[in-house]
Records
---
Amino acid sequence: MKKNNGYIILISLIVALGGFLMGFDASVISGVVGFIEPEFNLTKLELGWAVSSLTLTATLAMIFAGPLSDRFGRKKLLSVAAALYAVSAIASAFAPTFLLLVLARMIGGFGVGASLIIAPMYIAEIAPSKIRGTMVSFNQLNIVLGISAAFFTNYLIIKFGQSDADWAVALKFSEYNWRWMLGLETIPAVIYFVALFLVPRSPRWLIMAGKEQEALKTMARAVGPEKAALDMEAVKQSLNNEVNQAKASLADVFVKALRPVLIIGLALAALQQLTGINSVFFYAPMIFEQSGLGADASFSQAIYVGLANLVFTILAMLLIDRIGRKPLLIIGVSGIVLSMMALSYGFNKATYKLTEESISGFSTELPVENLSALINLEFTSDIEFKSALLENIDSQTLDAFQSEIFREAIQLNPMLILIAILAFVASFAVSIGPVMWVLFSELFPNRVRAVAISFVGFINSVVSFLVQLVFPWELAHLGTATTFLIYGLFALAGLIFILFKVPETKGKTLEELQLFFTKRNA
């Protein structure tokens, strides 16, 4: 069995590389926004669009990914996604205009949507029930690794750009910093595309497609010949027990019998994004700049975010099949509530004041004489301070020098902000991050699983798109403290829902879960 588990682990790791690309593709933009905003003279909503455009097409892809995977197979869709990642990375790196950059990012979004839906579905369909939670969590682990890699490579590119080494100068890391950040994704995308040739087709999909011999062969490698025969009969029986043998459609997801699990899926899909996780991941340097750390420090602090995400995702993988899904959700979402409230408190207590000494140290390109009217004036919110700045300098100048100005003016507890952000990321990574996708792969019956996961994934992506789009606007108009307070209140509502509505699915086969929910909802 250990040998069989080794085979499952290898296949799951390869398939989950799609999660790495998704995490990298989504989070690499965190290092890009500070450079493209002044270069393309973007408004706050345009900046939000640069970040969220990838999620928009990912959302569209999620609608079709499940049904297309039913028709052409999980493996084939993942190969297409790998190719889209590569094309997007190259096109983004060479984009001459903001419009073409957005279009290139949107191409990658189709790959994100497909891999985000298909990878955990495939792994759930090939992994034995005893290790299924851990195996499906490989996808979340790889998303986390991708996020961490994006933060780290962004930081390295900034450092290379400051280097006088001949090779760094020749590669123009300083001049083309954000283009290098986006273009690096080509390497893992090509690796993923090639590695997928080693992956068999999903056994459950093969059974649905009438290819039982190939399915039995794959299942035998995964769980052994005897268990494979039993599992195959269980899958066939499950499919045969479906009242309507017609091809599943979106309408089938809304039938009365599935309503309770659909509500759970939709609630978790919305909650995962309404906690603000992608605001932290995709705008991490911007958030740290708001706390006065400065540009270089903000990039290095973002690496800590990636590391916390990685460590606690691994912890979730170790615990999810031991203590169960629901306990992790309760513990983690509780931590999210406390962390967001701490962030809101920390920024609410911040003050902002410029002095003669601080202004004298500003860059020579900044028109410091225009700021003399603000010397020794204390502001109690970032909104008030920005408004006062905009009365004395234009918005383009503020965008270019905001990090420097805030670093000198802000007075707050930066350690509280850092600890709260890391605690938030840790709480997310040990709970709603990986557990949501595990539950998605377990809640819905075989025949509608692909369509149902596509639908709830679509909702997850829509909410993610909106959160990313409005985050720069929220910071500019509502303020940092209010923005984090809103996320904390959403998390609190989600915690109440989890306590009373989310069931435990640990240790049951997909067929046992289907029978359980059928009886429960009868």
---
Amino acid sequence: MRSWFFTLLCATLFISELVHAKLTLTQFQSPPKLVVVIVIDQFRADYLTRFKDKFIKPKTKGEIGGFQFLMSEGAYYPFAEYDVLQSMTCPGHAMISTGSYPVMMGIPLNDWYDRKTKKMRYCAEDDEFGISPRALKTTTVGDELKNAGYKSKVIGIALKDRSAVMLAGHRADLALWMDYKTFTWRTSDYYTKNLPPWVLGLNKKLQADATTEKTWSATGPGNGLSDTNSTGFQKKFKPNTKLGLSLNYGVQVSFDAATEALKSENLGHGPATDILALSLSTHDMLGHLFGPNAREVEELTIYEDQQIAKFLKTLKKHMGSSFKDVVVVLTADHGVAPSTDYAQKSKLSSGKLDYLDLYKKIYSHLNNKFGTSSKGEWIAASHSFQFYINQVVLDEKKLKKADVEKEFQIALQDLPGVFAVATASDIQNGQYPPGFLAEQLKKQYIPGISGDVIIIPRPFFMEKDENFATHMTGFSYDRMVPLVLFGKNIQPAVHPEQVHIVDLAPTLSFLLGVLPPATSSGRVLKEIF
């Protein structure tokens, strides 16, 4: 009996070791020649499961495939997490490239109030160059390649400047984004004063496209899971418009740029590993217009699948008809909530918090408590449910900020749709909202940048603005996205383990044999080897 048990134990341990195989020294010392990172903006975790039946089947009729190919041939984490209080584009992309939470890398929001200049500040704003990554207070994987002395090329591309810049990092050869005034690809002098010839060629094509109206259409019922346009739709648009780039055309031109960068810069064929990072901003733009349950989002996801398949086919040919020297990453910067219309129709408690109503409630309460001010308003600025108290009014009335913050809390905490109200003073004193919200706040709150008062809405509540649907919470629909790693030395499998987006950068650093970004806090995903 003992002999049988010992044999079974040894076999189990052996199988376990095979499942969690390690790299050999030869494998470790042979990094990929090219890393391609594809980020789909506002791509919720369930998009890869909801629409799977309409994706290209891999390895059929000469097709490599798109999403299904990457999921079947790569290490697929269906529910990777951001684990921050407010999920949005700039911090999301920064977390992907740095492996750091906002509290360490310096980017908590897309925009915040600068208390020194008394103006709102954009995350990629630069007083010298207009747009740059200088607000990012750490390094990226690409930066660490350069810091190690490798002659790598690092390029970031997106319609949104903040997405391209945060993926590319400080030492990138180029970050490329769309100029919505001229509808041409551009960069800033931080990277280069002159656009490469291949970018000028892309811009000529954009100008030629602008003369012809285009149509995006879908017919039939779709897969039956979308809530609107069950019989399809037809949308006519001019390419050189924000609407045009919010439809499938935006995905097309983004992949056109990535393909041209791949070929013209001869990425993957240099003396060291190159990095090409592409973010598909269109998905976010369309998602805000229609919401995650719309037929338009279903069809855009299917179109993205087709474009990824096309790009992978080009990539394989470019690398010599093989993926043996490539690593491809697919992920997203955040998810999205269902629209309030959809949530209410689904019998969920949902609604929109109107800033005008919030201001009235706050001012009425503070004026009753402290009296009105002759020096200004109580609130200097507000954005993304973050409120900045006017220091001039505090000085006039000789009030402590902590006392005013407490009254803010009292005024707001019982409003419908408000789950909790966090204040700077509470955070400083170690008092946090309940449950996982506490850890999320700790990872995102930055003294001097974050607001004095932060509203945490209840699930399915959002701010009232021009968006039909949006994202700005740490709830599952906003924080959970897919993560897929495919290529050299990576074993195919679906992983149920909890994984965080900050784990991606140190994993790529391990594969490349360089130090993780300076403030990286994630782990190496050893189970994928």
---
Amino acid sequence: MERPRISYVGACCVAALTASVPAAGQEGADVARAWRQGHEPAILREFSELLSYANVASDAPAVRRTAAYVRERLEAVGVEAELLELDGAPPIVYGELNVPGATRTLGIYVHYDGQPADPGNWTHAPWEPTLYDRSMEVGGKPIPLPADGQAVDPEWRLYARSAGDDKAPIAALLPVLQAFGEHGVRPTSNLVFFFEGEEEAGSDHLESYLDAYRERLDRIDVWLFFDGPVHQSGRPQLTFGVRGSMGMEVTVFGATRNLHSGHYGNWAPDTGNVLAHLLASMQDADGNVLIEGFYDSVEPLGREERAALDALPPYDQELKRELGLAHSEGEPATLPERLLLPALNIRGITSGNTGALARNVLPSTATASIGIRLVKGNDPARMQELVERHIRGQGFHIVREDPDLETRLAHARIAKVTGGGGYPAARTTMGDPFVQQVIRAGQAAADRAFGPGSLVLLPGMGGSLPLYLFTDVLGRPAVNVPVANHDDNQHAPDENLRIGNLWYAIDLYAALLTMPPAVVP
């Protein structure tokens, strides 16, 4: 059965975007804001409908339904949209909006897939969007979605998987294009929409898509990545790079079977202790990685990036208070400074059981999942080589599969290392002419929504995106344009979006789509 859709799209929209000219004296940002103010309940209902579509990349039928829905919504607001497909991969939602006389083409990247979610850890089911009158953390209560004409409080929160990461940009783009179509405002750039369905699963097929459809993408002058949260202070920000990501698992071995700790403790190796010593050898108590060469390949900042870093608002003390931290790694270095260094994180450790399931045994194995965040200049393969060289330096013989008895008897310490791969970091110079145009448009939108001088320019953010495929492979500058609230529980249970951030996204996107230079007469 076809799902009912909540629609606020007018029939005039498609023709208007391709044929109209800007109304005299009207700016895109004014039109989009006024339209939003007159349609806020409908926008929230439409957003809720989008959030109700399950979107984990491993669930191919669900992801395809989500992609089809997004394509329909783009078509309804005047975008020529289709699904690009490769065998075994979630589809790309691709769209074009070509503007007569435009001399610039913007590529707009969004990912419509989301992280897996365990319903048992959520207050409400992950794909049953629930509106709250405030955040849950401050005692907010669930409320119904608003009816037409009802006032909408920007402090409301909409809870659902992908509310902040990364369906919010789609929910903000649609009203902007709707408003432009109805009021005769034409974008000042050609627009190419490229919505991925596998980002949260590692973007395994993204490079293949870019290769297959390269001729459609070569005309793009600058990519805008609509993803991520605003600054931790709540101020808007633009970021010009992301960290790369890679990971591996390390398993150490003791006896061939679990042993009674009373009978064999102090004699047979305790794998949890062996692993703890190995991990402790990789990093000191202040968070500095001790692996030789780990920091050697970091690419220095350019002049504009260093100036932007120096101009960042001091916010570490407020953030530590919010997060209950008396100390941060690398002090006195700030969070933005630490994000410009590669990081080694222990994502999880397993060795036996704890709590009520704890047993008096020496586990035969212990495993750590290690995540490495890369910065500009780091090569994933080289970084893995450095980690493995360090493990060998601690006296371990490295294997790729569980060791047989002969191997166990030949080596006192054995580590199975699996995983690796990943992708490198990327950073776009802030001095690029197209990037400067984006910065000016972002500043105008931020000044309007938050006050003069509010925009934060961050050389690189801490999260990871496959940005390098666009900057290094396609050879185009890319700017990350985040809009979600910083406390949106990204990737975690009870993910949410503050409604005021959705309104800011509409302001920002309208400014970006109508930024100078304007359409050539």
---
Amino acid sequence: MSTVHSPDTTSTTDRGSDLLPIRNALLSVYDKTGVVELARVLVGQGARVIASGGTAQALERAGVPVTSVEEYTGFGGGWGGRVKTLHPKIHAGILARRDHPEDLRELEAGDAAPIDLVCVNLYPFEEAVASGASEDERIEKIDIGGPAMIRAAAKNWKHVAVVCDPADVSSLIEEIGETGGSLSRATRRRLAHKAFARTSQYDAAIAEELAPREEPLPERLALSLTKIGDLRYGENPHQASALYSAVAGSESLPGGWQVLQGKELSYNNWIDLVAAAELATFFDECACVIVKHTNPCGTAIAADPAEAWSIALKSDPVSAFGGIAAFNRTVTGAAADAMAEVFLEVVVAPGFDDEALARLGKKKNLRVVVLPTDAFRGARREVRVLPGGAVLVQTDPGRPERTADWKAVSKREPTAEELRDLEFAWKVAAVVKSNAIVFAKDRRVLGVGAGQMSRVDSVRIAIEKAKEHGHDLTGSVVGSDAFFPFSDGPELALAAGATAIAQPGGSKRDQDTIDVVDRANAAMVFTGTRVFRH
């Protein structure tokens, strides 16, 4: 067995001292980035390095003096390596309080030493899940010894430094060199915060993977977020904001998002571009969506992106200024040329051809973002935090489709053309802030009424917006995200030229509305589903 560094007071921090001299360091890492360099610096400053398994082998190959965990503990391991660091000499050395003489006497009696630095990173459980590894492979990637050492060191941060992220190794090396082999209290506290955040995130990923699939909202829901970066400000300049990743272990944009060019995206940009992208992904045909302040001011289906843009723009060219354009097809050079006439904040699409990138690149501030279509097809949860700590969680509403629940309730059933436009209007209404009213014809938006306190006011606004831009509502259809509480809204819509309406139904005055539709020889379907959105 190697010689133990005696746990006397000269090798530990004095009470109240800011700097922690590193005399014994324990290194046990899966990701070995920077570990050889760190060990060399520690040895150069007189520290003894203890390392486990593959870490010890990597240091030996690099010619760095190292004491193996087995040599230090006198315990040969076993059980597939699951137990090697779960040893009293390891955890006593980490947890011993340097300002408690009894702790130090017990260490010495146990032939152990205070461990001043713990450098551990974890088995890649999250990566195993993402790769589709088998259940047995995922189980073996659940780290036990690593989290135990990290949590012990973080608990005792006043006397121990813990590093669990390879990205911190370079700054650690720099500080150790500058201080002659020590780490400051501020560094230890910062690293302890990061350590507990990492073990919390790790456990959350495991819990999420083991959660019953039949329970979309389980009894316990662990949310762990990793900061990707600060944003310029929130909804208003006085509000701070940042972008986080909800994917465990990810410190970059997860899910396939890519920002190809332009100014930094703001909080509002992200909210708007997701709203635009979500609606674009609702359609199977080539579609363009223009969003302003989370509401679509233009949406159209056409043969190609350039034509879809041109038609969508005509819906409300005034509101489109400073908006977000989203496509569900690769943006072409022709589409980029068509968009050049309008000031846009963001263009988002599944892809951009070389000509499109060259043309869009002429506007240096324009954000160009790759939309991960598949990310919108997977089930997700929507979360809102309430003051005081309560959290609202709901399943996502899913893609609005025509289903068997759609029933014609009027005497006249909608024609095939009307039904096609009703499906289109219904999808658009699903992303408009409630109360939502959408007039559409030939699968293009003619007028939108959004966010009003009464549904009839939304109808009036949608009619006014359509007339403002010269759209004829004769033969149009109307989508309403929730039921009409009175017949006044449908009366206005039919008088303006609409011939068919889609709404969920469910009002105690549904028959009044049906009677109004029948008298106009129009058609109405009840969808059976509400797509209300706050």
